Amino acid sequence: MKSGIAIVTGASSGIGAQTAIRLANDFTGIVLVARRSELLEQTAGEVQGKGVTVHTIVADLHQPEAAEDIVRQTIDRFGRIDALVNIAGAVPQMNVLQMTDQQWDDSMQVKFHSARRLAVHAWPLLMQTSGSVIFVSGTAAENPKPNSAAIASINAAINALAKAFAEQGIQDGVRVNAVLPGPIWTDRRKAFLEKSAAASGADQEEVSQKLLAQFGIARYGEPLEVAELIAFLLSRQARFITGTAIRIDGGEVKGI
Predict the structure, then answer these.
(1) What is the structure's pLDDT at 190?
(2) CA 25, CA 2: separation in Å to the nearest integer?
(3) Residue 43 Cα distances to 74, 81, 85, 188, 232, angstroms
(4) Among residues 49, 122, 85, which one has the least CA distance to residue 234?
(5) Which N-terminal stretch is annotated as signal sequence (predicted)?
(6) 7, 25, 53, 160: least buried by Cβ within 10 Å?
(7) How far apart, in whole angstroms, are the C-alpha atoms of residue 52 and residue 50?
(8) pLDDT given at position 163
(9) Is residue 256 assigned to a domain?
């Protein structure tokens, strides 16, 4: 039976959109947050098609006031928060020697600080509902490379942040977990492959297979697969799981 209200950031495409659509099976209301209004409305249409009440918020999470406004709108519309899923935050894939201070600061604002602020502002409401928070980071945190230094560093910081919130959550009755996707087949991944193929003069499929070999995996993951993991972690079946970082990467990082 559906119940509760979830907030999903980065809900206009990729993992965020698929997570919102998947959570429509479990929640009665979902707040969708993203910058791109047209794509956000497409996600909203699919979620509403599952009989769920939707509230969309077009927001720039770089702005410090955005988090408080998102929580306020959620309370005004639904009166409660049961789940917060922090997914938003596209970070440039650039060499560590090339990124500027401004690019580092912008990346931290949209990926790290937005998630931190949202968790802080939503926390009192999550305590009331014995709710749950998901921080989505990535496997780059555990396998940093020169060309992914920013996302690796920020993801590592998010994992540490999630651990701190989880410790607080044990006292306050709020579960907190981190999800670490590996190479997932999103529009951003496709654009990266197209750019790499054009730069090298190689066939896109050839570049794709070369990257899979470098990752040490058989295929790319699908956004829905990540969404299913998030849905499980928010469910009652996972009520004894907190303070955990779970990789979903096809074996890219071997942790056995």
Answers:
(1) 86
(2) 7
(3) 18, 20, 15, 17, 21
(4) 85
(5) none
(6) 25
(7) 6
(8) 98
(9) no
User: What pLDDT score was predicted for residue 48?
Assistant: 97
| Residue with the two structure tokens 């570049």 | 207
For residue 243, the 8-state DSSP code is: S
State the maximum Cα–Cα separation within the chain, in Å, rounded to a whole number. 56
Judge if 175 and 196 occupy the same domain. Answer: no
**203 with 146, same domain?**
no
Phi, psi of 31 (to 5 degrees): -100, 120
Q: How many domains does the chain have?
A: 2
63 assigned to some structural domain: yes
Do 149 and 210 lie in one domain? The reply is no
Range of the domain at 35: 5-183+222-247
Q: Is 131 left (phi over 0), alpha (psi -120 to 50) or beta?
A: beta
Same domain, 216 and 231: no
Do 142 and 44 sit in the same domain of this protein? yes
66-to-40, 55, 182 alpha-carbon distances in Å:
17, 15, 28
Q: Within the chain, which residues score under 50 in pLDDT?
A: none
pLDDT for residue 18: 98
Q: Are residues 78 and 140 in the same domain?
A: yes
The reply to whether the predicted model has a pTM over 0.85 is yes
Residue 256 pLDDT: 75
Residue 84 lies inside a defined structural domain of this protein: yes
Separation between Cα atoms, residue 78 and residue 75, nearest integer Å = 5
